[in-house]
Design brief:
Elements (H helix, E strand, L loop, with lengths): L24 H26 L8 E6 L8 H16 L7 E6 L7 H19 L7 E5 L5 H7 L5 E4 L11 H7 L3 E4 L5 H8 L5 E2 L4 H10 L3 H7 L1 H11 L12 H8 L7 H19 L2 H13 L6 H13 L6
Parallel strand pairs: 1-2, 1-4, 2-3, 4-5, 5-6
Helix pairs in contact: 2-3, 2-9, 2-11, 8-9, 9-10
Length: 327
């Protein structure tokens, strides 16, 4: 408001006036300060609610949405295990806090199993003195609007990683981008519209597109061959399936691994894994450059006006209902 005036809450296109301010060092510093304040607020909230300490200067990597196999929280967990194994092997990574939140349908056993896996991975990773200053995993309970109001303004990275061709639209990705989070995602649902609005250079696109998914299905998809050919993936799935994250119940997560290797990997998690990891490495490289990260975050905010409810209703009135539109 101080930079562009107070018209933007009722006309979100006014946010376009922020775009030239990416060259204003004072504004960029203020933007970073506001983001850090929101991250500190979320850290305090999680400390009070869950008793967990997180580093506000780490990457806040956020996936908050309904728990479903096509939304691929499991792909995110596999990457968390990859980070953990790399750190244990002496790798140097940018500190990261990976946050999940969401609810599974009452009878959706696989989604509930993924929630169990996230908690089990978190229990091991967060308690390991060799890694806990570089990697934390948090499952925030009872996702709600009130939780979103604290999490979304604090997010650095927005996980929108559904299998291409499965997401109807998506609006959480819009809210996160509007709050200055950079999107990592597939070309699916509203990610495509966000790319058109903010530019592909200002987000992290990875994985198969819808046509490629269809082509893989048509010619026959063998996820086990990907597992055998990728030693990183082999190590991750062997650890999960062998009870490394559930020592009291070594077979607890075997069904998830079997579903990938022998159940057809319906949502192409293994097919997209390597591309996803490469995109996550690009995230780390950019986060090391606060100036460039801030520039891209501001451009995300500046170009989100087209997704406002007001703009949508105006388009419906003009193009579908054929009624006069107020200026």
């Amino acid at each position: 408001t101080g930079a562009i005036g107070d018209g933007w809450p009722t006309d979100l296109d006014e946010l376009k006036k922020l775009a030239p301010l990416v060259r204003d060092s004072q504004f960029c510093e203020g933007f970073r300060h506001a983001k850090l304040a929101n991250k500190e607020r979320l850290a305090a909230y999680l400390k009070k609610r869950m008793g967990i300490d997180i580093d506000p200067r780490s990457i806040f990597d956020v996936q908050i949405k309904r728990m479903h196999e096509y939304k691929r929280q499991l792909l995110n967990v596999l990457h968390v295990v990859a980070l953990y194994q790399d750190l244990k092997a002496g790798g140097h990574r940018v500190p990261r806090t990976v946050m999940f939140s969401g609810k599974a349908a009452p009878g959706y056993e696989t989604a509930k199993q993924i929630i169990r896996l996230i908690h089990d991975v978190a229990a091991v990773v967060n308690a390991d003195p060799e890694t806990c200053d570089k990697l934390k995993v948090v499952f925030i309970p009872n996702y709600s609007v009130s939780v979103a109001e604290v999490v979304i303004p604090a997010a650095d990275l927005s996980e929108q990683i559904s299998t291409a061709g499965t997401e109807a639209s998506g609006t959480g990705n819009m809210k996160l981008s509007l709050n200055g989070a950079l999107t990592i995602g597939t070309l699916d649902g509203a990610n495509i519209e966000i790319r058109d609005a903010v530019g592909g250079d200002n987000m992290f696109i990875f994985g198969l597109d819808e046509a490629e998914v269809s082509a893989w299905r048509a010619r026959g998809y063998d996820p086990a061959s990907i597992y055998r050919s990728d030693p990183v993936l082999t190590s991750i799935l062997d650890a999960i399936g062998g009870g490394a994250f559930s020592p009291g119940d070594p077979h607890r997560h075997r069904s998830l691994v079997d579903g990938l290797l022998h159940g057809g990997d319906r949502y192409f998690i293994l097919a997209d894994f390597k591309s996803y990891c490469a995109a996550q490495l690009a995230v780390e490289m950019l986060f090391r450059d606060p100036t460039e990260w801030t520039r891209k975050a501001i451009l995300n905010v500046a170009n989100m006006g087209r997704f406002s409810a007001d703009a949508t209703i105006r388009r419906y009135a003009k193009d579908i209902w054929g009624i006069p539109v107020a200026p």
